[in-house]
Protein: DUF177 domain-containing protein
Organism: Salirhabdus euzebyi
Amino acid sequence: MKFSLQKIRTKAPFQFEEDVDVSELETLNNDIRRIPPVKVQGEVTMRGQTITFQFSISGIMVLPCARTLVDVEYPFTIDSIEVFSTSQHHQEDENEIHEIHGEVLDLMPYIKENILLEVPLQVFASNESLSENNLDEGQGWQFLDENKETEQKVDPRLAKLSQFFDEKKDD
């Protein structure tokens, strides 16, 4: 999302709304597995040499479940305010004011930064999605649920021994 300073100076305040592709976040070293285009909407205002972007980012990111690594859709909405200055002489104490270099202001790095800050440390899949994606057995292992009654398989070598106990009960 790029805005020319000339457009901002002539039309401010104005509103904007756009679907933005941030799929580059999937390639970074974070937990985001997939992220479809996000919706960015907001307003630009200008006072003197200060330009203020007040915007909202909403979308869905797919993250791994902390227990089972199953994909979990995590919806998010982020409200943000970014302040820019066209002046080269703004005070150094104002860390929250970004300097503009050139005649085009690119909002994408700030959108990506806000999304990365929103990634939670852990997400957990719901019981429905776990039951859809669970594995009951694999190569050399089988999941046994304590709550379910399972019939015990008797080793054929010990089948005669089980008959011995049945005869004792009859006596």
In short: The longest strand covers residues 50-64.
